[in-house]
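Hi X.,

You mentioned you wanted examples for the new student's onboarding notes, showing what a folding record looks like when two proteins sit in one file. Here is a clean example. The first protein comes first, with its sequence line followed by its structure tokens.
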Amino acid sequence: MRNRHDTTIAGGIASENLIAAANSTEDEKLTQNHEPEAVDGTAVETYTAKKVLTKTEKKKFVYRVLIYILGLFIIGMGVAFAINSNLGISAASSLPYVLYLVTDIPLTVTITALYTLWVGVQWIV
């Protein structure tokens, strides 16, 4: 079935391959089997190697983690300043603030710990 959009491309007639590709659904593309096969038609096992980080990639990762932790301490100090100046706290900082009130752990530490926990949970999920 053709409609007015798939009959011409740049003034010419569209090829049947383009029309078929445009009409195929995403499910059909996802269900196509692209496993390698041997000459006799049997499936060939493929192995994927685990990625090994190079030294520069490890250094970049450590650098990013350190910058993240520094950022968390800066956020914690900002929340502490907002609380001490009676400006209040945001909803995102309320759980660390309650933990600070209950446990007497410094606010910057509770914020850093909970934000790190949330990032860890997101990383797992």
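Then the second protein repeats the pattern, sequence line and then tokens:
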Amino acid sequence: MRNEYNFTKGIRGKYLGNVAHRVLDTSGNQTCRPPSVCIVPGNHDLVERVAARTSEIAEQLTERYPVLYHMGWYGSWPSIQKLGLLSTSALLDLFQIPDPQRTDLLTKQRRTSVPISHEVYGSAVLRDQKPLSEKNLARCLTDCDPATWYKTLNERVFFWLNRDRLLKLMSAAEYVEKPHTVIEVETAAFVSQYVNQIELSHINTGNTRPYPHRRGRSTFRKIADYPYAERLHLGDYSTVVELTVLGGVRDIGKYVRCVEHAMITKGEYQVINRLFKPDAKHRVRQ
């Protein structure tokens, strides 16, 4: 079934209105972002082609993965409703966390979850990065160092596209038998709105176990750059592994279809309580 959103009009329009996202980083700063096609102002044919490819892949992506999944810290939903679903770097900016703590949190592995607080914005928790191994990460990075990779991860929020990926994470030794906040998002409206901030990955970028898959500048790719058709034969589980949003999603409530506290116990997904489920008439339409 095709979704009801006009991707050709919506995504193409948003893309054409934000061509700056495609300009190469010439600052000289080391980055793990993929080198994008440099679009020179006035090169409308190239802009149109990339916009058309973005729209085509986004529509196929939405039909294949109608729901996105995010595993958050237990009890985090009230803060997310208020502030949005923000990346670690965005939270540190908002909470005015000073250096050297800020730099350490952005460029080093968090072996435990880290609480932060602000007199206005309340409290938040930065999740641990236990599935990453410093030793394995150093082995598998192709063109940047671990500090840069951690910074790259911390500048975005992550969604699974396949529910089995969510369940696998919740079943990991560090997280099984523990409650989490599970957020389900309607893909169509969300992707249409955030197309310019979305980057896709073909691997679990926050994990190096049991095998440290190679990763680097080309791991996170804009929708138009992602080899979607070439990976279709891998099935839903691996065609696209992660959908990430640079900076975060401040208006996440517009796209949520369900929020619940849940956990994996005795191998089963157990809902503890339902926190949010909007009526269909209140969901965003475009």
